[in-house]
Design brief:
By secondary structure, this protein is an alpha/beta fold. It has one domain (9-240): Rossmann fold, CATH 3.40.50.720. Helices cover 43% and strands 17% of the residues. Strands 3-2-1-4-5-6-7 form a seven-stranded parallel β-sheet, with helices on both faces. The termini are far apart. Bound molecules: NADP nicotinamide-adenine-dinucleotide phosphate.
């Protein structure tokens, strides 16, 4: 095991399950101190217990759509660590509906979580970022090709991928890199919530690697982007999808 994050301070939003939790596990194994967020205290407590990272894990309850919660989060990080070296803006939600069925409430919820939450997580943490910090935003393969029923979700993910590119240009002079990761079909609670078991064989059939992705597959890619191994990778989107997008071209 490499130790690319020894002594580094990493924030992971939405770290209570799936990709966020797997990334916390990976960064901890490589020496990081990890701040984990989520909206639900019992889920946060369960994640902390599962990670078994001792005093290298700081759970902070909070909703990324609330600027008040983000202020409380950054103030707690400031007091405890004084800086951040890695931010993984991962907290997100999904909604798959035919275009005509999307309501204003759906729109507000998805955009608040996937766009506003990411935008202000990054804005509020900016003063804490060290000069060689790395930001990774969790986007989605859905921004790369048309997926019927993903209108709202794909639009939200395209927005944050573009934010990564723009911030790369803006923060580059400080040595801060900003990239996004675009997971394919990854077997997490979110995947199971939206894709019924009977649809799994068809999903796998569309993936050249002939399997669903794991949260660990994405965590490996996030760790790469957040590490010095990617020191000249900036403003990019790394698709982690077993070839799903490539095969559709
Ligand atoms: N799984 C896939 O196939 C897939 C594919 C492409 C992209 N993604 C992206 O990957 C990211 C993680 O999803 P996942 O698949 O790992 O799903 P997951 O297991 O359901 O995890 C979602 C995480 O986001 C947190 N969260 C949601 N809304 C939040 C909010 N407003 N404030 C704070 N935390 C919030 C949840 O925490 P609490 O519920 O405990 O608050 C949970 O920790 C999302 O951005 C998703 O769009 C997933």
């Amino acid at each position: 095991m490499t130790h690319r994050f020894d002594g580094k301070i990493a924030l992971i939003t939405g770290g209570t399950s799936g990709i966020g939790l797997a990334t916390a596990d990976r960064l901890l194994a490589e020496g990081a101190h990890v701040i984990l967020t989520g909206r639900d205290k019992p889920r946060l407590d369960a994640a902390v217990e599962r990670l078994a990272g001792g005093d290298r894990v700081l759970p902070v309850r909070g909703d990324t759509t609330s600027l008040r919660d983000l202020d409380a989060l950054t103030s707690e990080i400031g007091v405890r660590y004084g800086r951040l070296d890695v931010v993984f803006a991962n907290a997100g939600t999904a909604l798959f509906q035919p275009f005509g069925a999307v309501t204003e409430a759906d729109f507000d919820h998805v955009m608040a979580t996937n766009v506003k939450g990411v935008f202000f997580t990054l804005q509020k943490t900016l003063p804490l970022l060290s000069d060689r910090a790395a930001i990774v935003i969790n986007a989605s393969w859905a921004l790369h090709r048309g997926l019927a029923g993903a209108d709202l979700y794909a639009a939200s993910k395209a927005a944050v991928h573009n934010l990564a590119r723009t911030l790369a240009a803006e923060l580059g002079p400080r040595g801060i890199r900003v990239n996004s990761v675009s997971p394919g079909y990854i077997e997490t609670p979110m995947f199971h919530e939206h894709i019924p078991a009977q649809a799994h064989p068809a999903v796998v059939a569309a993936v050249p690697s002939a399997r669903l992705g794991t949260a660990g597959d994405v965590a490996d890619a996030v760790a790469f982007l957040a590490s010095d191994d990617a020191s000249y990778v900036n403003g990019q989107d790394l698709i982690v999808d077993g070839g799903l997008v490539a095969a559709a071209r």
